[in-house]
């Protein structure tokens, strides 16, 4: 199943990102190696980030999100994880 994680930065998000980015990217590299990462990146207005990834269940996706350094380290003041249906591009 695919999921989308939308994280919105808190007031100290930009500063915290500087320190937490390497560990955050390491987790995304692991998802990439497992062929579970669809896409990821920050919003152009620097207000947060989006990650589309695969997980076995919503519980697994939420656990993955909660363990992300941007969540546990306070970069995101708010985040959501929702099931996602890819329509385009067709797989």
Automatic annotation (TrEMBL):
Top-rank taxon of the source lineage equals Bacteria
Q: Show the stretches that span the lipid bilayer.
A: none
Q: Which Pfam families match?
A: YCII
Which InterPro entries does its entry note?
Answer: Dimeric_a/b-barrel, Sec-metab_biosynth-assoc, YCII
Domain YCII-related span(s) in chain numbering: 1-85
Similarity comment? Belongs to the YciI family.
Tell me the protein's name. YCII-related domain-containing protein
Native organism is Candidatus Manganitrophus noduliformans
């Amino acid at each position: 199943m695919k999921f989308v994680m939308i994280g919105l930065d808190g007031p100290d998000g930009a500063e915290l990102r500087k320190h937490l980015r390497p560990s955050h990217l390491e987790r995304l590299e692991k998802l990439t190696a497992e062929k579970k990462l669809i896409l990821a990146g920050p919003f152009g207005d620097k207000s947060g980030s989006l990650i589309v990834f695969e997980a076995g269940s919503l519980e697994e996706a939420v656990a993955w999100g909660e363990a992300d350094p941007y969540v546990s380290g306070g970069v995101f003041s708010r985040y959501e994880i929702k099931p996602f249906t890819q329509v385009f591009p067709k797989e």
